[in-house]
Structures are given as C-alpha cells and as structure tokens.
Write a structure and sequence with these properties.
This protein has 400 residues and is α/β, with parallel strands linked by helices. Helix content is 40%, strand content 12%. It is built from 14 helices and twelve strands. The strands form three sheets. The protein has a seven-stranded mixed beta sheet, with helices on both faces. Strands 10-11-12 form a three-stranded antiparallel beta sheet. A two-stranded antiparallel sheet has the order 6-7. Helix 2 runs parallel beside helix 9 and helix 3 (58-68) crosses helix 7 (212-221). It is globular, with a radius of gyration of 22 Å.
Length: 400
C-alpha cells in the first residue's frame, strides 16, 4: 500500500461549482456580466463594504488601488519585505519607489514603529508629502495592527497630501474583528482568489472600498479606462458602440465563469473557516511546549490561511532547509512563506541599500519558517501524519 502523502493544498470543490460554471457557459455570456455583478454585491454585503470590484488577480487589484490613491513616479509606497513580491512590484509598475518597513519581532506583520521611523525621517527631510500609501499585508490571515497604522497615516498626512492605507488581504478572508472585516479597516482592501487561497476562483481577486471617488476611478481603470463596461454596452438602452475612453486603463476584469465559482465558494466561506481553524488548533495543541518550535502568532480575526511553523535554530542541529527537505521526502507538501523581497536579484540591483541586516525581524522569520499543509478537506489521518512527521524530524535533529 502506498504511503500516505499530504499535499500542501487542495481546493475544496463540489458539484455546485461545476453546475454554476455550466450555467454560465449555457447562458452564452462568458465575460464580465450579471454573474460578476452579483458576486460583487454579495461580497460587499458579506464584508460590510460599500463597494466591491471583481478583478482578475490580487496584483491587478493592487495596481488599480495604488493608481487611484495617486501612486506614480516620484511617489513612495511603504510596505513590508516579508510578503509575496507582487505587493511591492505593483508600486514599481506605477513607477513609484518602495520603502520597506521591518516586521514586528514576534509576528509576521509589518511593524508600526518601523513605519513611524520611515515617516519621521521623511518628515525631517521634507519628503513626507511624497508618500501616497502604506500597504500592510495580513500575513497568513493574522491581521496587522490597523489602528496604529491608520493613526500614522492620519498623523503624517498633510493638507495637500493624504496618505492612504491599502490593505493587502490576499490571506485574510474572512478575517474580522470588532471593528469590521479585513478590507474595511483601511481606505481599500485587496483580496486574492488564487488557487491556494481560503476561497478560490482559480485566478481572481476583489477590491473593497467605501470611498466613492476611489471606486469610480478603479471601476473605470479596470477595463481600459472605458466609461461603460461590456455588460452595460450590450444590455443597456444606449448603443453598444457609444462609449468613451477617459483614461489609459488596464485589463483587469473578472469573467462570469470565474465569478460563478466565487459565488459558490463565498457561500461556503464560514464552513471552510471552521475547518481550517480546527486543523490549526490541532497543530497548536500538538506543537505547544515543543522546545524546537515557536507557534504561529494568533490574534483577533485570524483566518488561518497558512500555518507558519517557526523553528528555533538554537534547538536543532540541522538548518531550516534540511528540515523542510526531510518533510518533503517523507510525503509532506510544504512551502516557504516568504523569501524576503530584498533577497531577489532584481530587487538587490534596484535597492542595494536593502540588506538582510536592515530588516533583522523579517530576515529571522524568513530563515526559520516552514509552511505546513492547511486546507479544509484535510482528513484527520493527514493532519496526524503532518504532526508526527514534524515531531519525528525535530527529535531526530534536536540538540541533546
């Protein structure tokens, strides 16, 4: 009998998603239309946001949000180096400069004190009015300190320059706190529906905002800068060819086929959330008080998109990479979140001043963390396999 293997992630689909896709195909309307519009309405209602705009990726949504917030050449975006590269790259695509702030020492979240240090330096140099946005990333679904970040944005905004807060919510659906859902705690929030996320459309994303000015700009820029989308042009009373291009926009819309999947997944969000949390709780119970493990940070509203297992190098005779390789060889699908952005070749060349020494907390997290499998349909046998393999490997390499 083949030994049990546990994949890093597997999407949770049923016949409902298949039926929803077939319904769209049979309708004859495949691109952005009434299904996408309903998806947007349902997502906005779910999160308590005034507006929701479906896009073809979190990255597209980030570019749209940054552009609407005035990110362009000569402007700054403050974000974290401990995230996937697309967050910072979105600012680069708009010809802005990226200023990295370190993470907190005891979490993977961007550090408000590090943000303040950057803002204070810019203020003293007379450049703080060039900051367009702060972009916190809710790593693994554990929310950043949004109150402190919003307070900093307000404190360092000037009469002629508002500093916007754009939440990167790629990991944080359906995170919520007493203050509201992730994506409603800043000026805009950008979600991801990539294949491995807490709900998926295969590829795709959603922007949430309650700012009507931002919504109008992003809605226009989402589809080539047109003042009418395809559904309106072909179903409205005005002739389909009567439209205007009011800006050189992008191509970022989400088609109805993918939105149909998203509507079904949205209905299952609470169920998925409970199942992930049950697995995370099981991991935590098994790994607490283990000398070579630091449990992942856990705060209010944590969506547990990822389980970030942090090793204590002083308690092990092997490196993080050796530990990870052994897990893979024993059938555990693992990943690394995240390779810090300043370690990539292009970023080293672009920003040589950013080094591992500049960001001690982010670098420590990168060097010591392994992401374990965590998905709704994992069986008890799979979870037990992961736990036992981690413990066996750790004991093998433990400092005696």
């Amino acid at each position: 009998m083949e030994k049990l293997k546990v994949p890093f992630f597997k999407p949770s689909f049923s016949q409902e998603e298949k039926d929803a896709v077939l319904e769209v195909i049979d309708s004859g309307w495949l691109t952005t239309g009434k299904v996408t519009h309903r998806f947007e309405e349902e997502f906005a209602a779910y999160t308590g946001s005034k507006y929701a705009l479906a896009v073809n990726s979190n990255t597209s949504g980030m570019i749209l949000a940054m552009e609407a917030c005035g990110v362009k050449q000569g402007r700054y975006v403050i974000t974290t180096p401990y995230t996937f590269v697309s967050t910072a790259a979105s600012a680069v695509h708009l010809n802005a400069d990226v200023l990295f702030a370190d993470t907190e020492e005891d979490s993977y979240s961007i550090s408000p004190s590090s943000i303040k240090k950057i803002l204070e330096t810019l203020k003293n140099e007379g450049r703080v009015n060039k900051v367009s946005a702060i972009v916190p990333v809710h790593i693994a679904g554990n929310l950043c300190d949004m109150k402190s970040i919003r307070a900093l944005a307000e404190e360092y905004s000037t009469p002629d320059n508002k500093i916007y807060v754009i939440e990167d919510c790629a990991h944080s659906f359906p995170s919520r706190t007493k203050d509201g859902f992730a994506g409603t705690l800043g000026d805009a929030g950008i979600f991801s529906f990539y294949a491995t996320k807490t709900m998926t459309t295969g590829e795709g994303g959603m922007i949430t905002t309650s700012d009507s000015t931002l919504e109008a700009r992003m809605k226009c820029m989402r589809l080539h800068g047109m003042n009418r989308d395809a559904w309106d042009r072909y179903t409205g009373e005005k002739a389909s060819w009567e439209y205007d291009i009011i800006a050189p926009g992008f191509k970022s819309n989400l088609p109805d086929i993918l939105s149909a999947i998203g509507r079904v997944q949205l209905k299952k969000a609470e169920e998925f959330d409970k199942k992930r949390k049950a697995i995370a709780f099981r991991y935590n119970e098994a790994f607490k008080n283990i000398p070579f493990i630091t449990l992942p940070p856990d705060g209010e509203g944590n969506a547990w998109h990822l389980y970030l297992l942090q090793l204590k190098p002083e308690q092990l005779t092997c490196s993080r990479n050796e530990f990870a390789k052994e897990l893979q060889e024993k059938g555990i699908g693992i990943s690394m979140h995240f390779i810090t952005i300043y370690n990539f070749s292009w970023w080293k060349e672009k920003y040589p001043e950013y080094t591992p020494e500049t960001f001690p907390n982010a670098e420590k997290h990168y060097q010591n963390t392994i992401s374990l499998p965590l998905w709704p349909d994992m069986t008890e046998e799979m979870a037990e396999k992961v736990i036992n393999t981690v413990l066996e490997t750790g004991r093998k390499y433990s400092v005696r």
